[in-house]
Design brief:
The structure is a homodimer of 224-residue chains. Chain A is of the alpha/beta class. Helices cover 34% and strands 29% of the residues of chain A. The longest helix of chain A is centred in the C-terminal third of the chain and has 16 residues. Chain A is globular and about 45 Å long. The interface between A and B is medium-sized, with 34 and 34 residues. Bound molecules: adenosine-5'-triphosphate (ATP) (2 copies) and magnesium ion (2 copies).
Chain lengths: 224, 224
């Protein structure tokens, strides 16, 4: 479902070029459950943003469902992001002026759901992440772990074929983390593809394959 | 150094009152190293913000160095925050238009350091957190764990008597986490007081006392 070959991604900072992903190649099959690990700054979020069609790359190829992503226009990319991919950002990226419920409904508005079904579905996932009594709170009226769970609920609400989760349990206590991980396991059992960035070994052990990045390249790739 | 008695803190949401900290009492001696744990939403960040003189409370007393904090005016509170307390926020709160170096220098500007000494000291702490080759990057040009480390460096830069760290390793890989924790150990050995919020047991085990919050009250308080 994801085929990346010889990918290079650099940033320009000041007048220098900073290579971040270097000749990276990666294949992920439909329905796989992959953990992506590596030191802080090694390129995990950069790779996730490229996979999630949120960022471009410099050279190499990235085929999503056999379609070359760099050849798609903005509308086509937005379409993929809205319908095929659920993204949990490392920094949550919630809309500050909207409640938890409204934030979670947003992908369903893009997907064209009617108001009643949207509300029901959003409430259902907010219950799954334990936030039913915080639905009306805005992000600044929520704790760190509650905001993280709103971001999780928003990514799950339209049952995406591909779930990309960038450190989804970083702000959660162990009990809440376990609840989220069993939610992910259910999603995996339903045939969806999951890539989760984590720096916690016991979270990574819940996946089926661990890929370790080091300095912009794949250092290890192990089935569990 | 920190004496809290029968503290109550509530938020107003819509037209309802939501109690968050309930008749909370806590004593921390000078030089102690305390870990604060508890479920997501139990009130840890709220308590940290009150201890750090960033937020008010409704009833009860809070004495910092035997001074009743609720009787201080804004200038006096700012003075305490600038000179006595270093705060690492759960959401980092970096200034987006300034580089890592400029963000870390900021407390020294408030403390009246001259330009040369400020720059040297800021670079020294940025080295301690492993960011010397990212000093000129702005926050949006840094990874999640790099931003977290800028927030850590900024809190340490004027060697505060009290270090308040709200989930300081949430975005860090285990190697980088260990480096930060041994930095904290050195600060503790130097006689400073540390309160660290964490949801990771092995991080909490590095402190000398673990306080567990549950639903806005202290549930357990154990010396290690
Ligand atoms: N401005 C606010 N208005 C209303 N409720 C709030 C506000 N800020 C926080 N809360 C609520 O107060 C409770 C405690 O929040 P707090 O941020 O202290 O939790 P926490 O223990 O730090 O959680 P976490 O581990 O998720 O960071 C939460 O249930 C949250 O929804
Ligand atoms: N806009 C940018 N301009 C310049 N450099 C950048 C930019 N964004 C990221 N970087 C650099 O790219 C590298 C990889 O960043 P990335 O966010 O992918 O790391 P990461 O593996 O997710 O780290 P973490 O575990 O800390 O979240 C980092 O060294 C960072 O400083
Ligand atoms: Mg990252
Ligand atoms: Mg918190």
């Amino acid at each position: 479902i994801i085929q990346i070959d010889n990918l290079n991604k650099s940033y320009i900072i000041g007048n220098q070029i900073l290579p971040v992903l270097k000749e990276l190649s990666l294949t992920v099959q439909k329905g796989e459950y992959v953990a992506l690990m590596g030191p802080s700054g090694s390129g995990k979020s950069t790779l996730m943003n490229i996979i999630g069609c949120l960022d471009s790359f410099n050279t190499g190829t990235y085929k999503l469902n056999q379609i070359e992503v760099s050849k798609l226009n903005d509308n086509e990319l937005a379409e993929i992001r809205n319908h095929q991919i659920g993204f949990i950002f490392q920094t949550f990226n919630l809309l500050p002026r909207y409640s938890a419920l409204e934030n979670v409904e947003l992908p369903l508005i893009y997907a064209g759901w009617n108001k009643k079904n949207r509300r029901e579905r959003a409430i259902e996932v907010l219950k799954q992440v334990g936030l039913e009594d915080r639905m009306t709170h805005k992000p600044n009226e929520l704790s760190g772990g509650q905001r993280q769970r709103v971001a999780i609920a928003r990514a799950l609400v339209n049952n995406p074929a591909i779930l990309l989760a960038d450190e989804p349990t970083g702000n959660l206590d162990s009990k809440t983390s376990e609840e989220i991980m069993s939610l992910f396991e259910t999603i995996h059992q339903n045939g969806n593809t999951i890539i989760i960035v984590t720096h916690e070994e016991d979270i990574a052990q819940k996946s089926r394959r661990i890929i370790r990045l080091l300095d912009g390249k794949i250092d290890k790739d192990t089935l569990i």
